Predict the structure.
Amino acid sequence: MSSAVSISEVRTYRLIEELVAVQGWTGKTSGVRLLPQQEYRSISALKIALANASKTGTGVGFPEYVLLRVEDEQPLAVFEGKARATELEKAIGDATHYGDALHEAGFQPLAIAVAGTEDTHFEIRVLTRKGTRWYPITYEGNPIKWIPGPEEMDRIRKTTGTSDLRPRVPSPEVLKEKAEEINALLRESGLKDDFRPAVIGAIMLALWQDGRNIRRDPRHILNDINTACAKAFWDAKKPELAQSIKVDEANQKLAIRASRICQILERLNITTLTAEHDYIGALYEEFFRYTGGNTIGQYFTPRHIAKFMAMLCAITKDDVTLDIACGTGGFLIAAMQRMQETSHLSRAQIVKIVGNKLIGFETEPVTAALCVANMILRGDGKTGIKKKDAFDNNGFPFAKADVVLMNPPFPHKKTDVPPEKFISRALEALKRKGLAAIIVPSSLLVKADKKDWRAATLRDNRLEAVFTLPKELFQPYAAATTVIVLLRKGIPHGDHKTFFCRITNDGFRLKKGVRVHTPGSVLSKAISHFEGRREEPEFCTFAPMDETSGGWAPGSYIKALALSDYESKSIIGQVIRNRTAFIVRFAPYIVAMKAEIDRQGGSLSVEPLHNAQKLTTPAGTIGSFFTIGYGQRELHSKESLSEGRALIVSSSGMDNGCYGFFDFPKLIKAPFVTVPSTGSIGEAAVQTRPCGVVDDCLILTPKPGTPLELLYVAAATLRREAWRFDYGRKMTPKRIAEFPLRSDKALLTWVKEENGKAEAIEAQALADAGMNDKSLLEDLRDSEVANRRLLEIEANPLALVSGRDLNKRLFRLKG
């Protein structure tokens, strides 16, 4: 750097810093720093290496930046920048000059030249030295336009010949940071959420089409973006979509900010794409998750699930892949990624695949245009995307596809097309023996009104596999219980054994409304077990279809296991805590209920109902320890109940199933377990006080000789197995009776000890409530102090002070 640095040069330096940061080099934990000359001059090894490297031929030479690995002071790259893009060759000469000096000193840095500024078009050249000559790093024979990231740099350094790199998607952390900046700029431009995908899609496509010639000043930039975007659609033979995604040229606020948006997208290397990249998908999953997600009225399949389904179908480069509800093309890109991974396709081959092997239908104009843009970004050939209804026979590819990948829109109104019609239509497009992997609502597998459709489908096709998906998969955009069905066209199902699998961990979890990466994904294991025909209790099985017992639902077939030690202590502990929190919270009500029962000489209490069929079950199962029946039909309609002192339990998941306290004369004698007949509503609970139980619950009454501790083991087992029972498939005595139940002495001893601690807290709370004045009953639910205290108790009741402390606080609050 010279002592007098021009403003343009400063902008070039900022550009270098941003390009390096985007590739993940300079994070706090990276162990690498980008040092300007005033910082690396103090490093003696570099100073010695550059002692005679002045460009004038005498004295010390100093490049603009050195990318330094801190632990061993190794220079990984040397940077030279010039303010004008036309000065690239000069920047290359300076960078390689300093690179030569460092190589002569025993180091092996790359030489990186950057020409241009942060707010203009810029050029990059990355060079590696082999022998005494410098060679550019290339992508498909052309010099790369990005700075290599850590993994790429390591690969280059280990390569003996010239290096060819494929571009990579920046890390989620970088995408998140840039997404937030882009959304702030769009928000400042006055753009509502539902217009943002079209604007960003237009800018991305324009940069790809003619980024070099898009003028960055506010007077011209929006017009240039629209011109380049429209030309891309015309070149792809899709002129009808040229007006579907564009920018509003009258938006002066956007005109001012568009240059920065272009800069961000260029730094993310948006103009160099391959089959591996789904940038429109990244736009949705990273950029627009921070705006609330569903910005153009559709929910899009996470890319890792689309990739899983492409792997499941073992797609090859010779397969025609179809999606008749393609959205932005995520499934088609997943198919292309699969082809690339297995066949290492060239760009020319990718262009052919885009035009000939990928077919998509989409009726929504903006979404269809984004999908076409996604295809255009893979090459400059025609695309197989059609903006039309897949149920229109004109142009529909009957018996042309080898694979269907699809997530049809879930119906929200009676007039919407149901998912089974999409499945049937997709099967019409498949060749014989072709595969369809389709995401559908889990209710489709078991609902009685879909039984005839399921039977008709299996008369002509084979159900190869069904995979349940995590309930939070589409959050924060939507809460939906979904499955993947895998159907093979044209082969009757007969007595074929279907693979049923439960995906509990897809590699993500919900955190603060956003799904984030988490270890432990079972997706690879699921494919391995499917292909290797391996079974695993609680995870997967091969079983013949039985419509009468469970339709296509995996929960009907996958074998259950007894609770593990970890599950036992974790889930049983929660069962006990839930009961204790309920009793402490409602202690005055429970005391009042007991007083009323005593006053009437116990006449309110009745024996549990045995209103279910008698079951014969193996030893060591729920059915061998408990009699299973249904709740009370008198409570089927709860609206007519009036307030009173009798505890009523329903399918509620809160307060141990407590629905409230009402005037009801037939309370069932405790103890017993209650569990909602639909697992998606509430949880199993242990009832230790007499109560009425509505008939949407099952009641598990211990048989003579059954240890009371087994009530907690049974409740915990039912909580773990609740995934098997959704709105379309309810719990029945027969369905839960054969769940294995642990009854070993060590576990029962532990349960007894934990329960004893909890009962001590409950007893104190009930004793305190018996001394309180009756007006406390009215204040208990609404008291801010009480609610705060109860949250503490529910979190860890066994480590807290007794219920006496709660009631004392309430009295102070009343006073």
